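Severity: low
Component: inverse-folding endpoint
Summary: output formatting inconsistent between runs
Steps to reproduce: submit the following structure tokens with default settings.
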């Protein structure tokens, strides 16, 4: 019986470049060691993503029209490098009338929505080539809203992919909330899933537990309703640095002073907590299965911690941070590649 392979991608805005660099190395090795036409989606049974991770997941799972993934991870990297400045940039006038996003969202959603429409068009969630889990949060019903392409094939919870990407990217203070409509007409008011699952790996684990993979893929090589023993989880972050806050700076900060720190702390804290929980789960297994959980979260090195810093020098610094991690960790990444090859169907 082969393992269920799960890829989980953190949120982090333009810092998603780091995830793309690491995934590019993995994909290159899959092409060298298994198939010259290998694409990452061929090797994962479910891809999960929050915010920028949800966008990358959607790119990887985009269909080519004959049931295979159309794009390699290079496409995602090109989009971030070429379109990132356009999506995240604010004009001088916007900075003047709305300094630091105090009076309105920091970034206009129009460029983001235009780029999502150009790329995904009328593609529906159910069309994605493999199961996915993309996060968002319903602000009216006050609960998590999870987009699962497997569920979209079997019930009414189907949406346009461009709308899902807009919802998972709607980070408060950066982009406005969004209302999207399912293919059956139900309306949801949503914000970024990173508010509760910036690292969606634990959500992915929970979702995978209730999925009949043998039936989904029509094979006896994969288990239905897998346990943690049946999984390989690869969780990729967008940079490990956490900005320190001094006690004095927040002792009497008040509501306005806490706006930026509280978002930053919430995002990093839930990411670290998920890593701790999954680590503990896998440590309870036998010696062999303990090694089937990978948390990859490189140092940012000289790159900015800001999610919207799209200056050319910062984009280059993010690329270099990813390349540095790859160069320092080729042995463990190659072991990971071998596991993906062994568990492919």
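Observed output (run 2 of 3):
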């Amino acid at each position: 019986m082969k393992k269920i392979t799960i890829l989980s991608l953190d949120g982090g805005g333009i810092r998603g470049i780091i995830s793309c660099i690491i995934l590019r190395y993995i994909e290159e090795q899959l092409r060298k060691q298994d198939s010259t036409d290998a694409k990452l989606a061929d090797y994962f049974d479910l891809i999960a993503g929050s915010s920028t991770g949800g966008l990358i997941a959607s790119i990887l799972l985009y269909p080519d029209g004959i049931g295979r993934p159309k794009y390699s991870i290079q496409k995602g990297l090109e989009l971030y490098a070429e379109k990132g400045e356009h999506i995240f940039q604010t004009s001088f006038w916007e900075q003047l009338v709305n300094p630091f996003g105090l009076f309105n969202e920091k970034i206009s959603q129009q460029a983001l929505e235009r780029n999502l429409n150009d790329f995904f068009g009328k593609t529906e969630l159910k069309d994605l080539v493999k199961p996915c889990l993309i996060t968002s949060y319903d602000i009216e019903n006050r609960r998590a809203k999870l987009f699962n392409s497997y569920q979209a094939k079997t019930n009414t919870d189907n949406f346009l992919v461009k709308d899902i990407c807009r919802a998972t990217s709607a980070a408060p203070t950066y982009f406005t909330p969004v209302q999207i409509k399912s293919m059956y007409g139900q309306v949801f008011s949503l914000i970024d899933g990173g508010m509760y699952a910036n690292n969606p790996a634990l959500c992915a684990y929970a979702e995978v537990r209730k999925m009949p993979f043998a039936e989904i893929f029509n094979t006896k090589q994969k288990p239905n309703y897998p346990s943690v023993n049946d999984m390989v989880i690869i969780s990729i972050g967008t940079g490990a640095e956490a900005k320190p806050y001094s006690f004095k700076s927040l002792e009497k900060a008040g509501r306005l002073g806490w706006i930026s720190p509280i978002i930053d702390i919430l995002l990093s804290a839930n990411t670290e907590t998920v890593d701790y929980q999954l680590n503990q789960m896998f440590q309870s297994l036998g010696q062999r299965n303990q090694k089937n959980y990978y948390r990859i979260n490189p140092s940012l090195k000289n790159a900015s911690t800001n999610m919207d810093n799209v200056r050319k020098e910062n984009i280059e610094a993010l690329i270099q941070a990813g390349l540095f991690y790859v160069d320092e960790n080729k042995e463990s990444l190659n072991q990971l590649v071998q596991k993906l090859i062994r568990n492919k169907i």
